[in-house]
Amino acid sequence: MQLNFRLQDTGSNYTKVNMNKYSSQISLTFYFINTFLLFPLLLSQFYGTADEMYTSCEPFNCGNFVNITYPFWNYNTQPSYCGHPKFMLDCQDGSLTMEIKYQKFHILRIDQASQILRIAREDIWDFISGDIELCPKHYTNVDIDFHFFNYTSNNKMYIMLYECGPLPDSYYSPSNQDNFEVTSCDIEGKIQIIYIVSSAKLTDFSVMKCKNSITVPGKTNSLKNNSGVAKSVLDDGFEVRWNGVGDDTCHNCIKHGGRCGYKRAENAVMCLSKDPKGKWNWKMKLTAGVISSVLATLVILASIYIYRRRSNNSHVESYIQSPSISLQPSKRISKSKNFGVEHFVFEDLDVATEYFSIDNRLGDGGSAEVFYGKLLDGRQVAVKRLFEYSINKEKQFLNEVEILARVVHPNLVLLYGCTSLISREAMIVYEYVSNGSLYDHLHGNKATSEKLPWNIRMRIAVETADALNYLHASNIVHRDIKSSNILLNAECHVKVADFGLSRIFPIDKSRVLTTPKGTSGYLDPEYNKTQELTYKSDVFSFGVVLIELITCLRAYDISRKKEDVVLYEMAMNKFQNQTLTDIMDHTLDFNSDSKENQMINGVAELAFRCLQISSHMRPTMEDVLQNLVNIQGVNEIQPEAASSSNPDGEIKLVNNASSSTKQKNASV
C-alpha cells in the first residue's frame, strides 16, 4: 500500500508539472501575440524617444568654443548618452575643463577634424597664468589615459623642480640660460623657488638635490624666448590626440545625417536619427501591421512545436527533476557560471553608487573603473565596472570571480558578489577598503612629508607576502603585484586586490606558457622573454614593491634619467656598487646601530634575491615570508584563520595550505 501511494504521488507531481508547463506555454504565447500586435504603437513611441535624444545631443557652445560634438558632452546641459564617459566637459563662465585620470585639465583648443586637444593641468596652469600663486598641493606628474589619448609630436617633457638646494653660479652663464627658467610660488606663506628644466637636461641639475618634482608636457620650442618660460611652455599647455571612441561608426552615422551618442549599457557608439516629417505614414503603419501579423503567427506555431516537444519528454523529466528545480533553469545555470556567489542587479548597484557618480569613483585601470557604493543593507562596497564588453574581458571577469570565490584570507580583498552574465553590464562587488593603496601613500595623493613609518611598511611587506604565499599554496599566481594593487584599511592592514590577470595552475604544474601580461616596472623579465609564467614571477614583482618601500621611488618613472627609469634596474646597480643608500628614503633612520637600520638592510638584501634575472635564483614566496618574519623579529606568524568552500560544499581550512606545497614551490 505504501508503494502504491508513492506511485500515485509521483503521478500527481507529473500532472502538476505538465499543467504548469501548459499554463506557462499558453501565457508565453499570448504575451508574444500582444507584443507584436502592439508593434506599430511601440514603434511610434520609439520615434518619439529618438527625436528627443537627437535634439538633446545637438552641438553645444561654451565661450569661444563652438559646435562641440561627440565624443564630448556637456555635463551641465546634456544627458550622459550624448558623449563618451571619458569625454565629459564642464562649462563654467565660458571656460571648459575635463578630468583625465583624476587630474583636472583646462581645455585650450579643440580640433574635432584632426581629433587634437590642447590642454593644461588646472593647478599648474592657474599658477603659471597668474590666477593662483600657491604651489601645487601634490607633487604628482601630469598623467593621461593612454587608452583614449596619445601625446602628439609637438610636445616636449619638462620637469618642475621644488625644494632644491642652491644653483651654482656657473649655471647662470649665457650658455646655460636657454636650458632652464626660474619662477616661484607660495607654500604656507613662504616663497619657494621653482626651476623649470627640459627633461633632457635634468641630470645637469642633480647637483641641487631637489626633494620634489613634477613632470609636465609642454611645447617643443625653446625654454627661453621673449615672452618668458611660463608663457611659452606651460601656459600654452600640450597636445593630445584622442582615439578609441568608435570613430568609424560615428563618421558613418554623421554621413547619413545622424548624431553620435554612447550607449553605456553596451559600451558602444549609437547613431541618433531624427524622424523625418511624414515618415510614420499610412504605408509604414500598413507595413508594420503586416510584419506584426506574420511574427505573431510564427510565434504561435513555434510555441505549439516547443510545447509538443517538451510534452514528449516530460514524463522522464518529472522523475529526474523536482518541479521546483525544473521550473527555474536560468537560476541554476547562472549560479554555476558565477561560482555560487551572490548576484547583484544593475539597478541596485546603480543606486548604491549614486548612478556611478564621478565623486564616487575610486580608480580605473586598463579595462575597468572602480566606484564606491553603499548597499541597502548598509554594506560599503567597491564596484568594479568594465569599460566595454569583449570576449577577453569576459574571460578576465569570470577568472577574477572564480579565483576570489575560492580564496579566503585576511589580507586578500573579500568578494561580495557580481552581476550575472545576462546582466546589462559586467560588474564585480568587493568589500570597500577605505585607506587607498600603498601607491597612494608612497607616491600619490596620500603621500605627505610624514610618510609611512618603518614599522607600518614592515608590516605591509609581511602581510603582502603572507597573502601571496597563501595564493601560491592554492595554485594561484597573481601576475600583477604592484603597490597600487596593495590596498590598506584604516589601520594600514593589507588587502591584496585585482585578480583579473591571475592564473590558476594545474596541481601538477609549476609553470605555464602564456602571453606576458603585467605592469611596466614590475614585470618579470624572464617571463617577458620566455613567456613562461611561474610562481617566481610574483616573487620578482614583490621584490620591486620591497624596493618601493625602502626608497619611496616609483617602479617606473620617465622623469628619471634614462638608465634609471626602471626602479629595479637602478636598485640592482646601486646594490652591486654598494651605493643603495643613495636612493633610500631620507625619512628613514640610517643610524648603523639602530634596529630600524638593520631591518632596512635585511629587506634590501631580500629584495636583491627576489630581483634575480633567473627565476631559479629567486627564493620561493614561503621563503620570502619566513625571511620577512625573521627580519621583523617575530618567531612565527599567526594570521587569522581563513576558510573557503570547495565545489562540493565542504568547508576546509586553507590558511596553512603552504606546508603541503613547499616541495612544489621549491622546485619552481
Describe how the helices and strands are arranged.
Layout: H1 2-37, H2 39-56, E1 60-62, E2 65-68, E3 73-74, E4 88-92, E5 95-100, E6 103-111, E7 116-121, H3 122-128, E8 149-151, E9 155-162, E10 180-187, E11 190-198, E12 212-219, H4 229-234, E13 238-242, H5 247-255, E14 259-263, E15 268-272, H6 282-320, H7 323-326, H8 329-337, E16 342-343, H9 346-352, E17 361-364, E18 368-374, E19 380-386, H10 391-406, E20 415-418, E21 427-431, H11 438-442, H12 454-473, E22 476-477, E23 486-488, E24 494-496, E25 503-504, E26 511-513, H13 525-530, E27 532-534, H14 535-551, H15 567-576, H16 595-610, H17 621-632, E28 643-645, E29 651-653, H18 662-666
Parallel strand pairs: 3-4, 16-20
Antiparallel strand pairs: 1-2, 4-5, 5-6, 6-7, 7-13, 8-13, 9-11, 9-12, 10-11, 14-15, 17-18, 18-19, 19-21, 20-21, 22-25, 23-24, 26-27, 28-29
Q: Could you list some keywords that capture this structure?
A:
alpha+beta; 29 strands; 668 residues; Phosphorylase Kinase, domain 1; 21% strand; 4 domains; nucleotide-binding; six-stranded mixed beta sheet; non-specific serine/threonine protein kinase; globular; Protein_kinase_ATP_BS; membrane
